[in-house]
Design a protein that fits this description.
The protein folds into two domains: 40 residues; 324 residues, TIM Barrel (Alpha-Beta Barrel). 54% of the residues lie in helices and 11% in strands. The chain contains 19 helices and nine strands. Strands 2-3-4-5-6-7-8-9 form an eight-stranded parallel β-barrel, surrounded by five helices. α10 links the parallel β6 and β7. α4 crosses α6 and α8 crosses α9.
Length: 421
């Protein structure tokens, strides 16, 4: 039986029950109520497939879609994203969460989707909402030990995600690339084979009338830069593993010199990295021209300097993934309560002492581990004092506005309306 929500009066209470309800049944029912309410208002989970197919055909360019990872306080952060989007008439933007983030932030796909949709309801947003599973990654060690078990775990996660409204899934089997082989095709074989298997699985479970947008990955983030040869080798094996008529990936993630979270210096600041925009340009062009993909995807970009963002549209990057920079805004804000921050840092030092590396400074250790506070302090962060929370969310909203301008997605509502069903 569905539960009716008065959007203006009770969405706050409903999403809180969906996240912190006493038992799984209560949480599930509240998530369902939010999705039904959102649908009734014209707020619908969507696949970005049509938009990426259009740019793959050269029907538009000069737009790079931001994919925003929200690790915690998801309802409140999503509201800030929607406010910025509505202010600048933005339709092309993605909410996402990675497999690893689901674990350490204690957010199921169902809860994450409900938090995003509730944010749209609260702020009065209308239209398609793109929710994405980011880095649904094959764990190398687990795969070597039990390949079938590891793939079954990912398939379960994908199934739960698609059912929750994640109609965009990024498969990351780049961990299986065998860089020791001198043959590029052999290097990419396991990556291609697993990506093809998971592609077939997604096509078999996607809702009627929906083509889930699927991403692949050829270069493990933090490792050597990707090449055109890597892309050709991956696609040759990948396409050969798909049945005729099966729609494949819509984009390809590559490595161009970044790392997730950036390289942390002893004082806790982030080292400047040299991103290989020429490689990104070359790979995007190849992905579009030869394979009809939307283009190349850049990961690990949120800690780059602001002027780097101007380059992504120039080299026709289809999508940029952003995470740690938003986390930094939250924890480094002058409005984040000092006593809460002190308690979090003390907790990290005790619970994750085993993760401290030899010679690592306190600043480096805290920067590396504080993402875990989103799960460990989930309720406390959700209930920060209203005044503090409002100021922090304003800082985030301003940042989202800047990124929307930098990536040229301002006034993209009509573009989305044209190409997304």
């Amino acid at each position: 039986m569905s539960t009716k929500i008065n959007p203006e009066k009770s969405i706050d209470a409903t999403i809180e029950q969906a996240v912190f309800g006493a038992d799984a049944h209560v949480r599930q029912e509240q998530c369902r109520a939010i999705r039904e309410t959102a649908a009734g208002l014209g707020i619908l989970p969507a696949s970005i497939q049509g938009l990426y197919e259009a740019t793959g055909k050269g029907l538009y360019d000069g737009v790079t879609v931001p994919a925003i990872n929200i690790r915690g306080i998801t309802y409140h952060v999503a509201r800030a994203v929607f406010r910025a989007a509505m202010k600048h008439n933005v339709g092309a933007f993605i909410f996402e969460i990675a497999r690893s983030e689901i674990d350490y932030t204690a957010q199921t796909p169902q809860e994450y989707a409900a938090s995003v949709l509730a944010g749209a309801v609260k702020e009065g947003y209308r239209g398609p909402v793109f929710i994405q599973g980011d880095h649904y990654q094959v764990r190398r060690a687990m795969f070597r030990q039990d390949p079938e078990g590891e793939l079954n775990d990912i398939k379960k996660l994908i199934k739960d995600s698609v059912e929750a409204g994640f109609w965009n899934i990024d498969i990351d089997a780049s961990t299986l690339v065998n860089i020791d082989s001198p043959d590029l095709r052999e290097q990419q074989t396991n990556n291609s084979r697993v990506t093809a298997e998971l592609t077939r699985f997604i096509r078999g479970i996607q809702p009627d009338g929906v083509t889930v947008s699927i991403g692949g990955e050829i270069g493990e983030i933090g490792k050597g830069n990707s090449t055109v040869g890597d892309l050709e080798a991956f696609m040759e094996v990948y396409l050969g593993r798909l049945d005729k008529g099966t729609k494949g990936i819509s984009k390809i993630s590559v490595q161009t010199g970044t790392t997730h979270g950036g390289v942390v210096l002893p004082d806790g600041s982030i080292a400047q990295v040299s991103i290989d925009f020429e490689t990104l340009k070359e790979l995007s062009a190849m992905a579009r021209k030869r394979y009809g993909l939307g283009g190349a995807v850049q990961h690990g970009a949120s800690t780059l300097p602001d002027d780097a963002f101007d380059m992504f549209t120039k080299v026709k990057t289809v999508e940029v993934h952003l995470a740690t920079g938003f986390q930094n805004i939250i924890f480094d804000s002058a409005y984040f309560p000092r006593e809460t921050l002190t308690a979090i840092n003390k907790h990290l030092g005790i619970r994750y002492a085993g993760e401290r590396k030899q010679g690592e400074t306190e600043e480096q250790f805290v920067y590396k581990t504080r993402k875990r506070a989103f799960g460990d302090y989930k309720k406390e962060l959700w209930h920060l004092p209203e005044k503090n929370l409002r100021r922090i969310m304003q800082e985030l909203e301003d940042r989202f506005s800047l990124i929307f301008h930098k990536l040229n997605v301002v006034n993209s509502v009509s573009l989305v309306r044209k190409y997304v069903k």
